[in-house]
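cron nightly-structures :: item 1 of 1
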Amino acid sequence: MAMRVDVGRRRSYTPQLRDTIRGSLFVVALVGFGACATTREPTAGPVSPALEREARQTAAPGPPLRALFDWRATERDARFSGRGAARIQGPHFARIDLFGPRGEGVLSAALVGDDLRIPPDVAPTEVPPVPLLWSVFGVFRPPAGARLVATRREDERTTLEYADAGAHWRFEFVAGRLRHAEWRAPDGNRHTVALEGTAEFGFPAKVVYRDWAAFTELTLTLDEIERVEPFPEETWTPGAP
């Protein structure tokens, strides 16, 4: 039987576990991962605003959902795992919570459109950029202020690319579902989100977040998902008193 997580309850943090996992954008080092990393240079080409509009419509938040998942992170000398909860509600609300092996809170973050909301003790640099965090939920949200520089359609695959102040973004869709999101930071560091499978309500069955320069990886595997009543407003302000 799946473990139930009371996502409305605030749990005390275990500092050692919290700091280890939060110390590198949710995650910790993965041995040898970068050896097989490949990079793709930013491209420029024809731009179709219609493809962007289509992507926003088909990969957008829907009815209120609550999902429970297992998460796993590894490093050279240790492995970490726990349970997590995700809440999402159209048109532009989402929240993710990670819990440690004893149910202690590790990290919470909420999204309201392009606004990232985190508890006071969490630095914004400890959480992936807003468009990547949205992609964890299977939702496409273009990076605010970025310029659409290329669009491509090949059979069922659509690719959208954006540029902004030295940064580059790439989003890939298959049959209308977001399957890959990538952010190349101005310093060249590459961060990706890969989505696998499709569960009920179109939610991704498995999500893998990677920071290629830091050799880091976090895997989220969906356990159960259900449609629920709309969430109270305070849901979208983690850490509020």
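cron nightly-structures :: done
Residues 1-17, 23-39 have pLDDT under 50 and may be disordered.
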